[in-house]
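Hi F.,

I've been meaning to write this up properly since the lab meeting, where we talked about keeping a consistent format for the predictions we share between groups. The idea is simple: the sequence comes first, exactly as it goes in, then the structure tokens exactly as they come out, then a line or two of notes. No screenshots and no reformatting. I'm using this chain as the first example so we have something concrete to point to.
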Amino acid sequence: MMRLPIVLFCLTGLVLPFAPVRAQESPAPAASVTASPTARPEPTAIPLADVVPQADAAEASLQGGQLVGGAAEESPVARDLPSVTKEITARLAETTELLKPGVLLETLRDLETRWVKLGEQLALWSRGLTDRANAIDKQLALLPDLRATWTQTREAAQTSDTPPEIGQRIESVLAAITQSEAALQKRRAAILIEQSRVAEQSKRVANALGAIQSAQTAAVSRLFERDSAPLWSAEVRSKAARDLVQGSPASFGAQFLELRTYVAQHWTQFIHLALIFGGLAAALLWVKRRASRWTDEDRALERANRVLQLPIATAAVLAFLASSLLFDEPPRIFWALLASLTLAPIVIILRQLIDRRLFPIVNALVVFYLIAQLRKVAASLPGLSRLILLVEMVGGALFLVWFIRSTRLGGSGQTSHKAIRAAARLGVFLFTAVFLADLLGSFRLANYLANASLLSAYLAILLYAAAGIVAGLAFFALQMRPFSGLRVVRLHGPLIQRRLDRMVFFAAFIAWALLALDAFSLRLPLLGRLTAFVTAEISFRSLHVSLGAVLAFLLTVWLALQLSRFTRFLLEEDIYSRFHVSSGSSYAVSTLLHYVILLVGFFVAIAALGVDMTKFTVLAGAFGVGIGFGLQNIVNNFVSGLILLFEQPVKVGDVVQVETDVGVIRRIGIRASIIRLFDSSELIVPNGKLISEKVTNFTLSNRQRRIEVRVGVAYGTNPKRAIELLTKVAAAHPLAAKYPVPMTLMTGFGTDSLDFEVRVWTDEYDQWLQIKSDVSVAITEALAEAKIAIPFPQRDLHLQSIDPAVADSLRSRPGTASMEP
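Output, unedited:
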């Protein structure tokens, strides 16, 4: 009987054993974890027979921490909050230094992003601590009832003759309850302390975000105002000297402290980055050995192969791109150092992809990037930053002037070089404007233009190199399984590679355009206005249409057309050949699939247009009435076209005769089919005519064609010899079918000759006229060589030797042959 309560306990949960039971029957819960406080029953004593199993279950639950949501352990908040507090302190020092007049919008945007993510982490911690505190409060509320239950059980045991072991078990449970309550209280106090510390740090983050937003508003509203003294003033010179001597060590020290703190917290990510770089390098080294062989087979792929021949540089660039996924909001100096280390492999790859005459541009951009990173690190020192920017703009303008003169002397008239020279002239103008703005005291405007322009150029270089790498990897993927096993890849590999290159570089250009707009802080405003423009509705009575809906409609239809085109191309080039599908069946499947994709795309486009599809019920009814009255012929031809595609009495490629016209079916359309006649003209026949009228299909079951050549030989010729000779000549033609074998039949005795008919079959139906001509010429030559005469009408020959008047009278008699052709 003792096993029954244990089984019930296992089935009903871990809280049930702590509830009191009725004295007369089996145990019943006195208080449930989910019971309402207002409906809580009074605790009752546990029957003595059930004390041992209930005590075991209660002690196991209390000692295992199941009531408190798990065993006590150090929370992630307590472990990570000190380091986060140090990071916030370092960031506050850096932010305070940066939030000075003339701070860059880019810097403010970076700061805001980092502080927002830090605030999200603190908010997540705060919610987790609140949930845990509430759970502990609920669990503490259960312990008084549990204690009262076991206290009453102890009193009941004292008033009866109870063995000492049972009393000891009851006391053990009460001690465990007291110990658990103390642990819960202690844990609750620790959570409340953590909540207070997290709230304090959240307040610091909120204050920093408020200061950054205020600085952003001021920077945007005062972008074109002069925010500092001219560069030649004594105040600026003294400030620059002070920043260089005193401010630089403090600023760089704070940033390196922040970097050191970040590295200590995220050292595992660096190991992951090293593993990614090593794996990519090993894989690309393996690819390098095979890429040369593939390039030798197809020289058009040599450009993509150049990237694969630089495995270490390619792996470094790819690892740099992957680092943005590994590192969550690192310090500014971290990206400056990592990007500077990636410059060398980027330059190595670019030298393999661009014209040698553009190498100076790449080298100059590398120098500009290093200077810009130095200026970015020194952003908290405005005086020093102004001097660096001034030197950078002067050097950039002088370089671009030299580049324009050198390319002009080179005499290159290509469109690409003209565009590069135009961009260089724009750069000279922009650098000059930045130089003047910095010199005259508009430091904010100068920083805005310089950073946005140079960042756009850096992004162009990075994305161009990344696109070249991705194109090279796509080339590699096409040479490996499963893509290399596709017939479409084997037949059209270079074409697919060129299309992939275009897609990759187009995607890189779109990404560059968005990032460049973001560098100028124009992406969100521009996209917002563009979205408002395309979503603005134009109303005409009950019709409401927007430009965005129209564009979505057109784009959906275009995508449906492209999807249909690509699907049919893939089926025709690869799938049908694998399963040996006949030309007629493949055409039927492709046509039906084309119609289905277009129909689905049309309905999706209608939905994208914003049209209520329920209104199409009325349109469908009207359309049905129109079909019934005015579109019978069109529907007949449409349904007939479907019958032709499914039943296939005639297929694309069949040779058919419609009335007196013989030709090859080239297309079975929605309404009509196109038959190409042997004179190269095209006959358009409604589909209904091919179904309802008589049509001769010469190639329905097979494509063999019997060719008949009638021959007459002179009387006196041995018929067996003639049959043997004619059959031998017909069988000697290279396009004559081996089965059925050619044969010659004697068809009768003519007026002037013995008549024979040569029958030869061929599988090349479209060349039957040429075969008939060849066989006729060969028969003529063979008969001449065998001294067998081909007679002509003897009556006409006889009439040629008599008087013309007599001949005319003979011709007028019935049965006399005519001499006229």
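Notes:
Confidence is low (pLDDT under 50) at residues 1-38, 66-72, 796-803, 809-821.
Residues 549 and 610 are 7 Å apart (CA to CA).

If this format works for you, I'll send the rest the same way.

G.
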